Amino acid sequence: MPDLPTAADPILTRLAAGEPRAMNVCIDSFGGLVWSIVRRSVGNATEAEDLVQEIFTEIWKKAGYYDPQAAPEATFIALVARRRTIDHLRRNGRRPEHEPLDAATSLPAHVPPVPAPGCDPEAVRSSVAALPEDTRELFRMHFDEGFTHPEIAEKTGLPLGTVKTRLRRGLITLREHLQGSGATHIQPAS
Amino acid sequence: MIPSDIKLRFDELCAGRALGDLSPEEERELADLCQRLGVSPDATFDLVAAAVQTDALADAADPLPGHLAKRLHGWADGMPAAGISVENVIRPRIFAWRKIARSPLTGWAAAAAVLIFSLLITRGQKPLPPAQAAQAAQQLRGEANDLIERRFEGLGAYQQAGGSVIWSDSQQRGYMILDGVPANDPRQAQYQLWIVDPARDTDAPVDGGVFDIPREATRAVIPITAKLPVAKPQAFVITLEQPGGVVKSRQETVVALAKS
Known about the structure:
The complex is a heterodimer. Chain A is mostly helical.
């Protein structure tokens, strides 16, 4: 029976190294996280299940990219799961409708140079807690509950454009809070 | 220097991309902006969004349904080990490649960017068409007064591989002109260029881009797509990696080397 993953012995590293049954451990450890991310956005159960398998296939292919010193494994896996889920919704034309943003009024006045953010769970929690209360509530509805923007607009009574603006602005602010020492944020195109 | 209003708009579009809320018009705007700036979408927003969602679900994640867990385990039991199948593994001790992600300039942001990009773009660079290749290389030779040129030597099972690489520090452009490099199946493995630059504050090589050699190619001219600025390249190394390339190469298959 393979060992369960630990911070010092991440399963993604073992997966990349071709350790037998490492994927089984990965599924046991992170299946719930991946399923929860997918299920919050994809209503059809069969589609959701297929997508979960696609995501684990992607994790298998990309395990070699994981750097244990950069972020927790769960964050890396959530990143892959979120990206794949968003792509799935785009492919199927099921993204929510949006109102155009007024760029001039929707952006913060000052954005400092942004290096790589730190992703320590405690730092993430405290940075989210530092957001304005109304933004925190939108974050909760989006990330915890998985509501679409129109659903959030309907539940809160806010205009759709405002929901979109506040979520984006919140993410930009959060990245500023989480920034650590390190890389410039714009990467040359491949 | 990027004007601040463009930078702000770029950030907002990248945040929208990470939230999955870009309209088709905004997607086009972001693609145009990336092309104009010569950058990829900023993956750090995806990282932050993933971190927030992971924390939000820490105590609220739904368990994987039993039948899906069984299906996934059945699939996992039948899968091969990760990575590429290598018939002729060679491990030349050319460079002490330290952990690339420890470099302050190539940490998680770079890894995330490469990951996101590789999720979106599954194919590597293809050789330029012959006429365009000759013109591009000639143009660089004419424009750059600091052009360096090095010969590639095939290594191990790739003795037949050869060619040259040209590079200009001032232009931050270059090309590989490759002969005898076998065609690859991008679904199985892809070639990746690494640039060794002692002028950097780390001995981690710079990722020079993933590329494919098509079956019909005899000579291939591949544009170099360095992920970071290169100042004084000492060597260029081609490895064979998993599809999409890697952030850190284990140098399990080194195809060719060109050095000073």
